[in-house]
Amino acid sequence: MFIMIGAGSGHRKKAYLGVRVCPHCGKLSHFYLVEQAQQVSVFFVPVVRWGKHWGIACSRCKAGFEIAENEKEFCLKQAQWMPSEKQMNEVIEYLGVQLQSGEVPDFETLRERVRLRFDFHVDDRSLQEMIKGLRQAADQASQFRQFY
Ligand SMILES: [Zn+2]
Predict the structure, then answer these.
(1) Ligand 1 centroid to 61 CA: how many Å?
(2) Do 8 and 35 fall within a single domain?
(3) I want to staple 39 with a disulfide (CB 3.0 to 4.6 A). Which of 6, 10, 96, 121 is the partner?
């Protein structure tokens, strides 16, 4: 009988932590609490895992930083109140349209519009980062013009 066994390090996304402009890739990204461990897999299914450690990582570039056990608990608590990645994408899309409309709404105005538009709560920090990320992207796009 043929059995496929693999060994190495594996990771699992454990909780969604919201949106930030990533310090590593510079893009507006979703961040996750990630568990990393050494593992042995049989037919690609992990059967033994050890040496676990935890980190917060960007889902776009996969870069992140390690955190301690007590910080992990804090992240898990925060994640309970976090909307899903899909819901956050809807907010990003909505804000993108708001910011392209020509007017320059301030943070309070945008927060109020998001509050009225969506039936879930978006934390202020994620909201600030979305606006920052979208404005940065718009600035970069505006520097592009027909060159030749
Ligand atoms: Zn990144």
Answers:
(1) 4
(2) yes
(3) 10
Q: Are residues 75 and 90 in the same domain?
A: no
* Cα 97 to ligand 1 centre (Å): 23
Q: How would you write 82-122 as a 3-class SS string? A: CCCHHHHHHHHHHHHHHHHCCCCCCHHHHHHHHHHHCCCCC
* Distance from residue 45's CA to the centre of ligand 1 (Å): 27
Output the six-digit token pair for 80: 């309970």
Q: Tell whether 73 and 88 lie within a shared domain.
A: no
Q: How far is the CA of 142 from the centre of ligand 1 (A)?
A: 22
Which of 55, 80, 105 finishes a domain?
Answer: 80
Residue 88 and residue 115 in one domain: yes
Q: Which amino acid is at 65?
A: F
Reported pTM: 0.83
- pLDDT tens string, the chain, 148 residues long: the values are 788 888 888 889 999 999 999 999 999 999 999 999 998 989 888 888 888 899 999 999 999 999 998 999 999 999 998 999 999 999 999 999 999 887 888 999 999 999 999 999 999 999 999 999 999 988 888 888 888 8
**Ligand 1 centroid, distance to 43 Cα (angstroms):** 31
The residue type at 2: F
Q: What is the CA(55)–ligand 1 centre distance, in A?
A: 14
Identify the domain boundary among 80, 114, 139: 80
Q: Which token pair is 138?
A: 């718009």
